[in-house]
Amino acid sequence: MNAPLDFHAHLARRPLPAAMLQALRARFGERCSSAAAVCDQHGRDESPFPTTPPDAVVYCESTEDVAAVLRLADAYEVPVIPYGVGTSLEGHLLAVQGGVSVDLSRMTAIVQLNPEDLTVTVQAGVTREQLNQAVRDQGLFFPIDPGANATLGGMAATRASGTNAVRYGTMRENVLGLQVVTASGEVVRTGTRAKKSSAGYDLTRLFVGSEGTLGVMTEVTLKLYPLPEAVSAAICHFASIDAAVRATIQIIQMGVPIARCELLDVNAVRAVNAQSRLGLRESPMLLMEFHGSEAGVKEQAETVQAITGELGGEDFQWASTPEERTRLWTARHKAYFAGMQLNPGCRSVTTDTCVPISKLAEIIDLSVVDADASGLPYYIVGHVGDGNFHLAYLVKEGDASQRALAEAMSERMVQRAIALEGTCSGEHGVGLHKMGFLVDEAGAGAVALMRSIKHALDPKNIMNPGKIFDW
Amino acid sequence: MNAPLDFHAHLARRPLPAAMLQALRARFGERCSSAAAVCDQHGRDESPFPTTPPDAVVYCESTEDVAAVLRLADAYEVPVIPYGVGTSLEGHLLAVQGGVSVDLSRMTAIVQLNPEDLTVTVQAGVTREQLNQAVRDQGLFFPIDPGANATLGGMAATRASGTNAVRYGTMRENVLGLQVVTASGEVVRTGTRAKKSSAGYDLTRLFVGSEGTLGVMTEVTLKLYPLPEAVSAAICHFASIDAAVRATIQIIQMGVPIARCELLDVNAVRAVNAQSRLGLRESPMLLMEFHGSEAGVKEQAETVQAITGELGGEDFQWASTPEERTRLWTARHKAYFAGMQLNPGCRSVTTDTCVPISKLAEIIDLSVVDADASGLPYYIVGHVGDGNFHLAYLVKEGDASQRALAEAMSERMVQRAIALEGTCSGEHGVGLHKMGFLVDEAGAGAVALMRSIKHALDPKNIMNPGKIFDW
Questions:
Q1: Residue A351 sits in which domain range?
Q2: Mean per-residue pLDDT for A268-296?
Q3: B208 in contact with A at a CB cutoff of 8 Å?
Q4: Average pLDDT, stretch B330-357?
Q5: Which residue, among B444, B218, B182, has the nearest Cα to A452 in the 3D structure?
Q6: Do residue A193 and residue B422 have CB atoms under 8 angstroms apart?
């Protein structure tokens, strides 16, 4: 077993040469800032690590801007950290070796929309909500929905997924191509707009999930989907988490093309009730959605209703109006912040394990026993249709022993997931937090291959250094 | 534009040291052969290139066997070419630098079947038909179907797809993990059995489609699917290819979850009629299949029947019995050999372009005009639901001017596909044949990244050297 990351020992700031800062200011003027407030804002994400600011922030507005920063960074051997809107969860954005944060949030152009091909190319700073606004009047949508209104660049960088992945796949399946600025400042394209290709190494999928460590993605070409003719959502309560998970397993094994299948434990239900006044019965529940033709949705729903009925589901309720659905899904998306508000002033240590579906009840049940015994407040939400769930331990800010307790439980859960042939991270990425877990999961040999690729594509270790694995 | 490959200039045989052959014989006994007949058999595939035999063939029966070959190859700097059943189409298997062919066809174990998770792990030499036999009594199937009864290792190596990809994706979407022997003879695992993961670089998808140039895949973990409750096939004739393609475009744009959507031009229909006595009307046709619940299949079929009717489709006919369906799909799968028999003694130069669906009619129409003008016999089959089709030019064996004519048309088609934001290869891979096209398509910068990865993972250039791109 690998030791957890020693955050402070991991810090190794490299100096930002004055000449580099001067060159950035000459090129970018007011779009380059080294103000403490700006740097602090770019030196944190939603992880429980302390703020670790970069030395400067550059607001890029074009691929050429990004390439200009990278050419300077290459020349001065200065770290570069791509930044979207700061919603990552594993310390991806923290400038542990100093350097320049490349803020892409102003790169919000829809570059090319091809409704007739179900594809769109966007700049990396476009958020998923902006994208869906832009394609809705063509009768299309982009299904990947990690909850946060993240940028498409950030979502590609962490190989994000979320609530619709059970039916539509993750960023892995939905990115067709990329424009990338390499570590030396060269602009390359990967992939095409064709739906499939066997032309050479799959660079697209190498960059997807590389967390900014191999280059900066500046454009993303994505698959789109026709808005379903019919959408229906339902909730179903269960006496236990175990019963809810067993119903999920059955739904997946039957091959029902369910679009969303989310678990909320009683703590999460309580939290969203408190925040959004939903008046939900306070017991474990599944929140589900079905997409298809009118008849297809009805058929799916009947199958699922029968399964949940057999497995002790109670109070199966429909939410067929768009307003009701939006209310439920908004509440689900706010569960993270709602959960935090159960214990004001706390931080959350959040797990992200994903296991083969038949092992899901086992790992959740054991993790609940562990969490209950700890006395720490916690809640569970999960994309259980994929075998993926998040257990968030709420720890008092600055309370080292609570933090250590939560990290120890997280560690035990990861070891269980690996033993069950699953993964330490379903969708959040490795960042700083899971560097040790990655070695446990993939093995030293596979991590050595990743390291060789990193050395080949970023020989000066300037692309988001200190993340995923040690140099 | 890049010059086409000069095959003979590309040959650069390295000597096989006697000590290496001796070491292989000591380790493998009769499972190591340097007999000319055996080497010749392993020095060709279905491409029109001349047989280019390896210096020896080793029949491996385990991952440890493969690792033993690789450790010797690393020590002696000898090329290694992974070999399944020899169905590749682009010269992948030809020993252009000599070396050892690692025959994996005896590695046929189903290592681990988990019907409850819809996953299976197989040794690389398992063929898709063997796999489907092994999982059928669990009510499951593996959809990727390139026509040939290829091995799963070979299919992963070329990122294969075929007739079911329009609904189920390609090997890119359906490989969960791999066991790989690296160029230095180390055994690593990539991926897990979890449905999704954000844990580190996506090594699985880097090896999928790497055509044996980065390592030898010895085990493949795959997604399986429940056998559909209902399956129905249909054929529909059209007055022109253009009308058939326009119907396809409409079907895809409507979001119909069609499972197979294949085009046969009149020449292909004639060929399968001649070979399989199908008595099909000799006009361009679509051969389609629908998977789902009884009601779902009926609904899809009604939608498609309405679309084809509006676009001039004629003689829409159902094939609902398994026997009829098998007869039609067997004929489709034999189209390659049936087409060859139209001109006995010929070889085929086969294209594999794939374009965004809205561009499909344009590229097929132009390619037909070109082919008709050439006077060469040809036929077209295509996975048109994906925007992918194959035009096979039939050239007299040894007729250099016919061959050059066919290659020139192939080149023009590829340039058109690239201009239309498509790819030179939808599913066959690059091999030897498309090395120039890859540079045209991906650009020198992206190919340089691929080359960096190759140099990092195979620094002695022993893994299937001389393929995909120049060293």
A1: 230-419
A2: 92
A3: yes
A4: 88
A5: B182
A6: yes
